[in-house]
Amino acid sequence: MNIVVLLKQTPDTESVIRIAGDGKSIVTDDLKWIINPYDEFAVEAALRLKEQHKGTATIVSYGPQRVVESIRTALAMGADKGVLIDDEALQASDVLGVSKALAAAVKELEPDIVLCGHRAVDYDEGQRGAMVAELLGWPHLPLAVALECDGSKAVVDRPVEGGKVSMEADLPAVVTMGGSHAVWSPRYASLPGIMKSKKKPLDVKKLSDLGLDEGECGAEGARLTITALEMPKERAAGRIIEGDDASAKAKELVRALHEEAKVV
Amino acid sequence: MAKPVCVVTELRAGNFRRVSFEVASEGKRLAEALGCGLVAVAAGAGAGEKAPELGQYGVEKVYVADDAALESYLPEAYVPVVAGILEQCDPAAVILPASVDGKDLAARLAARLNTTLAQDCTETSFEDGKIKVRRPVFAGKCFAWCEWSEGALPLFSCRPNVMDCNIPLPDQRAEVESVAVSLPDLRSRVANVELDVSGKVELTEAEIIVSGGRGMKGPENYSMLEELAGLLGAAVGASRAAVDAGWRPHSDQVGQTGKVVTPNLYIAVGISGAIQHLAGMGSSKFIVAVNKDPDAPIFGKADYGVVEDLFNFVPAFTEEVRTLKSSC
Question: What was the ipTM of the complex prediction?
Answer without folding.
Answer: 0.94
